[in-house]
Design goal:
The complex is a heterodimer of chains A (208) and B (477). Chain A is of the alpha/beta class. Helix content of chain A is 32%, strand content 15%. Chain A has helices spanning 22-25, 45-48, 88-96, 108-115, 126-137, 165-173, 177-182, 185-198; strands spanning 7-10, 12-15, 73-76, 100-103, 120-123, 142-145, 150-153, 158-160. Chain B has helices at residues 3-15, 20-28, 52-61, 95-109, 124-130, 162-171, 196-207, 222-225, 229-237, 253-259, 268-278, 326-332, 358-368, 386-394, 397-404, 453-462, 468-472, and strands at residues 29-33, 37-41, 44-48, 72-75, 112-114, 139-142, 156-159, 173-177, 181-187, 216-220, 246-248, 291-296, 303-305, 313-315, 347-350, 378-381, 406-408, 429-432, 447-450. In chain B, helix 7 (196-207) runs parallel beside helix 9, helix 13 packs across helix 15 (397-404) and helix 13 (358-368) runs parallel beside helix 16 (453-462). Chain B is globular and about 70 Å long. The chains are: A alpha/beta (208), B alpha/beta (477). Chain A: Belongs to the LeuD family. LeuD type 1 subfamily.
């Protein structure tokens, strides 16, 4: 279960491209085991290393640059995390130490995967992301307040982002969604009793 | 809200015209959650070997079990070998463990498993409709982004991550923020040689890969209802490439005819009752959507991608845009203004959950009959399921492909993506009936052009990107 994320301040690395896909975040060839760990090394492998399969850092890639050493926030463009639903992309980011991604929009599955793994996906307009990126390039750290829904810089500039109540609670309280849902066990049972009468063909064991 | 108030509101809501999505949503709403989310009942869950072991392992590690194993299915498709005579061994290093661990976990959990050599094995989104596992009005989720394919049957089917797969299995529900709705209406009739693949690529090219913005997109209009079920699956398949939560098409007689008699579809009196219910699953006249788009299907041409996102697509008579960014062009080895048609290719691939069903193979084979793949072009055809493969072989389509110079494979996701195993020769330019042209998707440095199966075949024959309509004008016309 992820650690609660209420506020966070850290180095933000700008990766201002649109449509950064989950194949780029974690290439399929880097998903080597059936587990959820051991993925940080493969994060952005196609961009981070000079040649496929090697681990020689490409100095031109943002996360390899000394200014962004220890980055915990990523800045992205539109439709961040598009493509494959692989949660490995988010597990790799989390294992690498990323706690938030600030982008102009997110692909829906990736957004949900972030929330379930303690990474805050914050949507801000392009101008705001550009300003934050410029500040990050100038050496400013970036702060996030998940409860308040704000991103701010040391000089006081602040932007608001919206997060649905459920997503916010998941992040700030590190809630386990399954536990929450199992509290509604009776409602689920009542639904099934009603639905079974209405749509019996959905319940496969009855057809055997 | 009190019970009485809630009931009044509910009755008002039922009296209002509703979208197909609203009907599916309301049918499955177990409880309302804070902030506009809802607990949604999940009717079907599908796993595959790439992430199945992780989800089932996670569940087990947390001391939980699958709530209703009869409604959870698992298939081997993602990394299973597609070469003849396959077994658990994979070309992907370490791939075998994904198969054996998923198999063991699926058996232990009591799921229905379509194993490597099972006659029902195939790509999850081909197998599920084929067996009638997905049904109109059902909710179906899978840890696979292309689950939206199955919206073609009038189901609310969408891709999720592993954590949500665990949640769905443990509780039979998912906690979902209410999505916004969009309708994309394709007016008019498709021209000859223009396919559902071209319809969806045109939408994404015109409105960008992020254009669907998490909406549930209903595909409607004359050109959509005219499609057969497999064409509708191709259209819905790439809703995820449009950043939609999913795509959906209202079920109709074509849907019911397709499903009748399939293994997991209802039978007898239950079938009649189900069809009566399914007939109510259409958007009511006057229902409103959060967004509406319209596309003139009659004006569409075969499409082909030039860059590294599906939004980087143009009509086959077109050229790389003048304002294309440096990065995709550098990766693809192209220049602004360069024509797509005529670009020499190294490989041609027919397969994937987008375009590997029997009708895809039939149309491809019709163009290929009596022709040959250009010298030096590696060409593969990978049927979408073992059933598709058998049906194609019964019609002799395999001979058409192999005599033309295509390899004919066992079913699976194959080279739609590169998992460390099989790929094309380094730096290859590939015309592919798949859905993603991302950097490195089919292998490091591989340059993918996504297109319809017809365009793949026409290009394989020409040895360069080619308009399939030009072939049709030849001897077959």
């Amino acid at each position: 279960m992820p650690e609660p994320l209420t506020t966070h301040t850290g180095v933000a690395a700008p990766l201002l491209r649109d449509n950064i896909d989950t194949d780029a975040i974690i290439p399929s060839r880097e998903m080597k085991t059936t587990g959820k760990t051991g993925l940080a090394e493969g994060l952005f492998a196609g961009w981070r290393y000079l040649a496929p399969g090697t681990r020689d850092p490409d100095p031109s890639f943002v996360l390899n640059q000394p200014a962004y050493a220890g980055a915990t926030i990523l800045l992205g463009g539109s439709n961040f995390g598009c493509g494959s639903s692989r949660e490995h992309a988010v597990w790799a980011l989390a294992e690498f130490g990323i706690r938030a991604v600030i982008a102009t929009s997110f692909a829906p599955i990736f957004f949900g995967n972030c929330v379930r793994n303690g990474i805050c996906p914050a949507v801000l307009p392009p101008e705001a992301v550009a300003e934050i990126a410029a500040a990050a390039e100038a050496g400013s750290q970036v702060s996030l307040d998940v409860e308040a829904g704000t991103v701010s810089l040391a000089d006081g500039r602040t932007w608001s982002f919206s997060l649905e109540a459920e997503a916010r609670a998941m992040l700030t309280e590190g809630l386990d969604a399954i536990d929450l849902t199992l509290k509604l066990r009776d409602r689920i049972a009542a639904f099934h009793a009603r639905d079974r009468a209405e749509r019996p063909w959905i319940y496969l064991e009855e057809q055997a | 809200m009190t019970g009485a108030r809630w009931r009044r509101r509910w009755r008002r809501r039922l009296a209002e015209p509703r979208t197909l999505f609203a009907k599916l949503w309301d049918q499955h709403r177990v409880a309302d959650l804070p902030g506009g989310a809802a607990l949604i009942a999940i009717d079907r869950i599908f796993l595959h070997e790439r992430t199945g072991a992780a989800a089932l392992g996670g569940l087990k590690a947390a001391g939980r079990s699958v709530a209703d194993p009869a409604r959870v299915f698992c298939v081997m498709d993602h990394i299973v070998d597609t070469r003849p005579g396959r077994d658990d061994r994979t070309l992907m290093p370490g791939g075998q463990a994904f198969i054996t661990e998923t198999r063991a976990a699926a058996r232990e959990a009591g799921l229905t498993l379509f194993d490597v050599t099972d006659p029902d094995q195939g790509i999850v989104h081909v197998v599920s409709p084929e067996l009638g596992i997905v049904l109109p009005g059902a909710t179906l989720v899978a840890p696979d982004s292309h689950t939206c394919t199955q919206g073609a049957l009038g189901a609310l089917a969408w891709g999720i991550g592993s954590s949500e797969a665990e949640h769905a299995m443990a509780t039979g529900t998912l906690r979902v923020a209410t999505p916004r709705t969009m309708r994309v209406t394709y007016t008019g009739k498709l021209g000859r040689g223009v396919t559902p693949k071209d319809m969806i690529l045109a939408l994404i090219a015109r409105h960008e890969a992020g254009g669907g913005k998490g909406h549930v997109v209903e595909f409607a209009g004359e050109a959509v209802t005219a499609l057969d079920m497999e064409g509708r699956m191709t259209l819905c398949n790439m809703a995820t490439e449009f950043a939609a939560m999913t795509g959906v098409i209202a079920p109709d007689e074509a849907t019911f005819d397709y499903l009748a008699g399939r293994r997991y579809a209802p039978r007898g009196a239950a079938w009649d009752r189900a069809v009566a219910h399914w007939r109510t699953l259409a958007t009511d006249p006057g229902a409103s959507f959060d967004a509406e788009l319209e596309i003139d299907a009659a004006a569409l041409e075969p499409m082909v991608s030039w860059g590294t996102s599906p939004e980087h697509s143009v009509a086959i008579s077109g050229a790389v845009p003048g304002d294309a960014g440096d990065r995709p062009l550098a990766y693809m080895g192209l220049r602004p203004g360069e024509a797509l048609a005529g670009l020499p290719i190294d490989a041609a691939f027919i397969g994937s959950c987008t375009n590997s069903r029997l009708s895809d193979l039939r149309r491809a084979a019709a163009l290929l009959t009596g022709r040959r793949v250009a010298p030096g072009v590696k060409a593969l055809c990978v049927p979408g399921s073992s059933a598709v493969k058998r049906a194609a072989e019964a019609e002799g389509l395999d001979k058409v492909f192999t005599e033309a110079g295509f390899e004919w494979r066992e079913s699976g996701c194959s080279m739609c993506f590169y998992a460390g195993g099989e790929s094309f020769p380094a730096g290859s330019r590939v015309v592919s009936s798949t859905n993603r042209n991302f950097e490195g998707r089919q292998g490091p440095g591989i340059r993918t052009h996504v297109a319809s199966p017809e365009t793949v075949v026409a290009s394989a024959i020409a040895g360069r990107i080619a308009d399939p309509r030009a072939i049709g004008e030849g001897a077959d016309a």
